[in-house]
Amino acid sequence: MYSIHKPALIQRYESEVKFTRKPLERIGFFLNFILLCLPVLTFNSVASAHSPYFGQVREITTPELGKISLRILNGDGIFFGDPQRVVAIDNNGFLLAATPLSGALSIHCSQSISPPFCTVYDELNSVFYEPRYEEWTPGELFVKEGKPANYPEYMESDFGFAQRPAAFAEILSIEFAKVVRAPLATALAIAWWGAIWAPVAIVFIRWRRNYWRSNRFTVLSLVIILLGLAISAIMVVLAAYAWLMRPYSLYYGLFGCVSGAVISLLIARFGRPVRAPD
């Protein structure tokens, strides 16, 4: 019997197709991941004007002022995240104090002392706002029928709080608590950044396995690499827009970015290698 030998050009074409099948599957996975996460990222992008509203509320009782509530007042960011202030309201609904404007505030109270001592943490600027009770006096009627009477962005000034920088240990404690409270959101952020870093990690590992030589990259493989990097760039833009819609601290962002990069490198390093055609 006679053996039929394929022409060298056909053999090379088949080897390149076989070699690029896995990268194409990875790129398809990245596209599916983007399509699945895109509704989550763009859910808040449908802008509609809304009234100011209260978020987190913590209530304390002091000997001088009686029952007080600290409330996160959210405004209307329209195309971006809602601006915030923390306002102190007395039992009759009058305004006692207000923090400066920010995009990511949270209230933290210590129950180990009496009365409980509460501070406001601004995670975008890594500062605490501590109450100055001696400056708190009833001002305008701010709560009417349970709703705020003004937007935080339209309030003329902040008063009644002292600002201090947060210690690094305090920042780590708050960021760790955030990860524990929202494990699903943290896992999604790490997976998103892992998908962003995946094309870079694959190219880096393959280049390293080739002893830093680039002569084994074919034209088709370079096109696929550029396509993967373009998808990563789109995902970075989407991540930036998600941050504008719901800002978070630099430390939380670095945690997700670095964790995603490490996971991508580990998968590319210990996953099944994709061999170049001979």
What key phrases describe this protein's structure?
278 residues; alpha+beta; 45% helix; elongated
Rg, Cα atoms, Å: 27 Å
Give the helix/strand class.
alpha+beta
Strand order of the largest sheet: 1-2-3-4
Low-confidence stretches: 1-5, 9-21, 42-47
Task: Characterize the structure shown.
45% of the residues lie in helices and 20% in strands. The chain has helices at residues 8-42, 168-181, 183-209, 219-245, 250-270, and strands spanning 53-62, 66-74, 84-90, 95-98, 105-110, 117-122, 127-131, 143-144, 147-148, 161-165. The strands form 3 sheets. Strands 1-2-3-4 form a 4-stranded antiparallel beta sheet, with no helix packed on it. It has a 4-stranded antiparallel beta sheet with strand order 5-6-7-10, with no helix packed on it. With 278 residues, the chain is α+β, with helices and mostly antiparallel strands. Mean pLDDT is 80; it is low at 1-5, 9-21 and 42-47.
Brief sketch in words of this structure:
By secondary structure, the protein is an alpha+beta fold. It has two domains: 12-44 and 178-270, no CATH class; 53-166, no CATH class. It is built from five helices and ten strands; from the N terminus they run αββββββββββαααα.
